[in-house]
Automatic annotation (TrEMBL), chain A:
<comment type="similarity">
    <text>Belongs to the complex I subunit 6 family.</text>
</comment>
<feature type="transmembrane region" description="Helical">
    <location>
        <begin position="144"/>
        <end position="166"/>
    </location>
</feature>
<keyword id="KW-1003">Cell membrane</keyword>
<protein>
    <recommendedName>
        <fullName>NADH-quinone oxidoreductase subunit J</fullName>
        <ecNumber>7.1.1.-</ecNumber>
    </recommendedName>
</protein>
<keyword id="KW-0812">Transmembrane</keyword>
<dbReference type="GO" id="GO:1902495">
    <property type="term" value="C:transmembrane transporter complex"/>
</dbReference>
<dbReference type="InterPro" id="IPR042106">
    <property type="entry name" value="Nuo/plastoQ_OxRdtase_6_NuoJ"/>
</dbReference>
UniProtKB/TrEMBL annotation, chain B:
<keyword id="KW-0793">Thylakoid</keyword>
<dbReference type="InterPro" id="IPR018086">
    <property type="entry name" value="NADH_UbQ_OxRdtase_su1_CS"/>
</dbReference>
<keyword id="KW-0560">Oxidoreductase</keyword>
<keyword id="KW-1278">Translocase</keyword>
<comment type="similarity">
    <text>Belongs to the complex I subunit 1 family.</text>
</comment>
<keyword id="KW-0472">Membrane</keyword>
<feature type="transmembrane region" description="Helical">
    <location>
        <begin position="301"/>
        <end position="327"/>
    </location>
</feature>
From TrEMBL, chain C:
<feature type="domain" description="4Fe-4S ferredoxin-type">
    <location>
        <begin position="55"/>
        <end position="84"/>
    </location>
</feature>
<keyword id="KW-0793">Thylakoid</keyword>
<keyword id="KW-0408">Iron</keyword>
<keyword id="KW-0004">4Fe-4S</keyword>
<keyword id="KW-0479">Metal-binding</keyword>
<dbReference type="GO" id="GO:0019684">
    <property type="term" value="P:photosynthesis, light reaction"/>
</dbReference>
<keyword id="KW-0874">Quinone</keyword>
């Protein structure tokens, strides 16, 4: 084992530990903001593993899209939502929990069978390396054209949907009135008016 | 193409001649350029702070720092020392872990991006294949640090500043990336070295600034917004938000933000020089000058001269852009947050898309001028 | 379609105009770079203040008749006049007089209205202290005269804008004997005498 391989194994160990720890943290931590930040950690570790697999373009794309966009949007959503609600215990909570457990177990079984059934033979083809961008581009426009175009259509639909949602200018009259009344009242404690100067007699 | 000076090769060769194995020699070499770049990047902060203060003073008919060292060049050092000795306050009811982590996450990607800044044919830490894309990816990590520090400060101004910074960052990343993409389209490569090489040969006439007149404007506006420089410095708008996400920070943590913002400005200016101003190229190609004086291009002293010229040209171009950024600071007023997002999404994004489209069309129509 | 094209045209026109204005602004700031700094290096250089400068108030104890006009005209009734009636001379006798310069707004009304001219404005403006109560000047402190800037060997006196020759904005390196813009008081008097 030469130096490069040692470095690779050590960094794989570190990245895997980071990824698993962060992923468990995302699920188990009470504080949702911590979970969101740890999700960023998971994405970064995945990007690191992509780098170890010689897929530097995918790694950079992972950082750009998942860390830079998705995770930031999640954080945005968390920080902009300001809704407090009392926790009410559900009456038949165990049904939900059982359903979740079944789904999780199913996914786990699916993934395990996939891992077991994959041959994991190391490909003999030379890694694309710096030319990976070209290879990816060629694949996108030849044998993966349909998924690529479908994904872009999906994104376009999402984009148009976002525009439609954001540009909703016409509100029904009564609803608009109600919204205005709600918006104008600031959520603050009712205060006693402090009398000042001549107005004392009025009070 | 003249390969220019190869420091790495000669370093490893000289160590090999002392009897070291090639692998060990390379291991010895590896930390060297990183250290040099790190030190240079930190020193550039001092230079930039001094320039900012002096140019601001000149624009306002003041003198600026004068007594701390000759022409006040030690003033930034004094600032730094003061910050280093300042008490590190963690506000009450804040989140100490995230509060400490925030500035680090802001600084690290900025310094990592220096990996791809070339100062010469072989004067780059790594000529990564996806070069400029790495910078875009790394700069998208910064808003997480900003959100983190904004959230953990337990201060509404910090939170607002953090949210504004993140919103600004993600909305100006798109025009930035699209305008870079147009350049990449012309050079057929994401590597910064290739992008510069594609501009060489015709001196100042070959620079991308002539081929991308719209792209370079968009890039510069978006880069200013990414660096949170004045027309777009809403996240730290002093008059409204105290100092945005930096409000609660003091001591070295504040210094980290400070360093990050200035290093980021230098980085943007350097990359602007690389993308649009021909990187290390002189105004006239060196080969032509050498040919004029009948000097062989491979003469060792010429290579040293070319390397020095390359570094100084890159820095000169970068600092010219820094100068414009500082001048901009005292010229334009701050935009409002809605104007900022309007400009980003409704103006720069469509224009940069059209620019990309036109570049692609021109590339097909005139492959000679727009890369083949 | 035409309308849309017109909209696009207008938009581009506006964008170009905005760019032009930013360029104009940049040229203005750039032009400032070549102008000389007007900085006065304060502790080493000080301005010679105009004769109308309203600085710390000077008070002459012996001239005061304790009429309290200064208190009445003061917007905040600031001067404290402590007097008692002297039965023998049947005159008010002043014991203490004080003005708190931490509160004074230097409007100069007291100086304007003082019937015996015992109050006057000086050119002292360096009123910083470590405790605001130290700014409460009593009659002794009020009687002190400030040190003249032109007499101070540590200080390079610089002319204020009013004393500079016409068209000169920078007080540094002014040749000796250069005259200020306009006529000096004695010249006005001379002219008036000549005319009459």
């Amino acid at each position: 084992m030469n130096l490069a391989e040692g470095v690779q194994i050590v960094s794989f160990g570190i990245l895997a530990a980071m990824m698993l720890g962060a992923a468990i943290g995302v699920v188990l931590l009470e504080n949702i903001v911590y979970s969101a930040f740890l999700l960023g950690g998971v994405f970064i570790s995945i990007a690191g593993i992509y780098l170890l697999l010689n897929a530097d373009f995918v790694a950079a794309a992972q950082v750009l899209i998942y860390v830079g966009a998705v995770n930031v949007l999640i954080l945005f959503a968390i920080m902009l939502v300001n809704k407090r609600q009392d926790f009410q215990p559900l009456r038949r909570g165990w049904i939900r929990k059982a359903a979740t457990a079944v789904v999780c177990a199913g996914i786990f079984a699916l993934l395990s069978t996939m891992i077991v059934s994959t041959p994991w033979a190391i490909s003999t083809a030379t890694p694309a390396g710096d030319a990976s961008v070209v290879v990816i581009g060629l694949h996108f426009f030849s044998d993966f054209l349909l998924p690529f175009e479908l994904a872009s259509v999906l994104l376009l639909m999402a984009l148009i949907g976002a525009v439609v949602l954001a540009r909703r200018e016409f509100l029904p009259d009564d609803e608009a009135d109600r919204a205005q009344v709600e918006a104008l009242r600031l959520p603050e404690r009712p205060r006693e008016l402090v009398p000042s100067g001549r107005d004392e007699t009025v009070n | 193409m003249n390969p220019g000076i190869d420091l790495q090769g000669s370093f490893i060769e000289s160590l090999k001649s002392f009897g070291l194995p090639a692998g060990a020699a390379k291991l010895l070499w590896m930390p060297f350029p990183m250290l040099v770049i790190l030190v240079v990047a930190v020193l550039s902060v001092f230079a930039l702070v001094w320039l900012e203060r002096k140019i601001s003073a000149a624009a306002q008919q003041r003198i600026g720092p004068e007594f701390i060292g000759p022409l006040g060049i030690l003033a930034p050092l004094a600032d730094g020392l003061k910050l280093a000795f300042k008490e590190d306050v963690v506000p009450a009811k804040s989140d100490p872990l995230l509060f400490t982590l925030g500035p680090a996450i802001v600084v690290i990607p900025v310094f990592l991006s220096y990996l791809i800044v070339p100062f010469g044919q072989n004067m780059v830490i790594t000529d990564v294949g996806m070069g400029i894309f790495l910078w875009i990816a790394l700069s998208s990590v910064t808003p997480i640090g900003l959100l983190m520090s904004g959230y953990s400060s337990n201060n509404k101004y910090s939170l607002l500043g953090g949210l504004r910074a993140a919103a600004q960052s993600i909305s100006y990343e798109l025009p930035l990336a699209l305008s870079v993409l147009a350049v990449v389209l012309m050079s057929n490569s994401l590597s910064t070295v290739d992008i510069v090489n594609q501009q060489t040969g015709y001196g100042i006439l070959g620079w991308n600034i002539w081929r991308q007149p719209v792209g370079f404007l968009i890039f510069w506006i978006a880069a200013l917004a990414e660096c949170e420089r004045i027309p777009f410095d809403l996240p730290e708008a002093e008059e409204e938000l105290v100092a945005g996400y930096q409000t609660e920070y003091s001591g070295m943590k504040f210094a980290l933000f400070y360093i990050a913002s200035y290093v980021n400005l230098t980085l943007s200016a350097l990359l602007f020089a690389v993308l649009y101003l021909g990187g290390w190229e002189f105004f006239v190609p060196i080969g032509t000058i050498a040919g004029f004086f009948n000097i062989s291009e491979t003469a060792p002293w010429l290579q040293v001269v070319a390397a020095v010229l390359g570094i100084s040209m890159t820095l000169l171009k970068a600092y010219f852009l820094v100068f414009i950024a500082i001048l901009m600071r005292w010229t334009v007023p701050r935009v409002r947050i809605d104007q900022l997002l309007d400009l980003g999404w409704k103006f720069l994004l469509p224009v940069s898309l059209v620019n990309l489209l036109i570049t692609a069309g021109l590339k097909i129509a005139f492959p000679v001028a727009f890369g083949s | 379609m035409l309308k849309f094209l017109k909209q696009v045209g207008d938009y581009t026109k506006e964008a170009i105009q905005a760019g032009k204005y930013i360029g104009q602004g940049l040229s203005v700031t750039f032009d400032h770079m070549r102008r000389r700094p007007v900085t006065v290096q304060y502790p080493y250089e000080k301005l010679i203040l105009s004769e109308r400068f309203r600085g710390r108030i000077h008070f002459e104890f012996d001239k005061c008749i304790a009429c309290e006009v200064c208190v009445r005209v003061c917007p905040i009734n600031l001067p404290v006049v402590d007097w008692e009636f002297n039965k023998e001379s049947k005159k008010k006798q002043l014991n203490h007089y004080s003005i708190d310069f931490g509160v004074c707004i230097f409007c100069g009304n007291c100086v304007e209205f003082c019937p015996t001219n015992c109050l006057s404005m000086t050119e002292e403006y360096e009123l910083s202290t470590y405790d605001r109560h130290e700014l409460n000047y009593d009659s002794v402190a009020l009687g002190r005269l400030p040190y003249k800037v032109t007499d101070d060997p540590m200080v390079t006196p610089l002319r204020q804008l009013a004393y500079l020759p016409k068209g000169v904005l920078d007080p540094h390196g002014l040749p000796a004997g250069s005259k200020r813009a306009g006529l000096r008081p004695e010249e006005i008097v001379e002219q008036a005498e000549k005319e009459s």
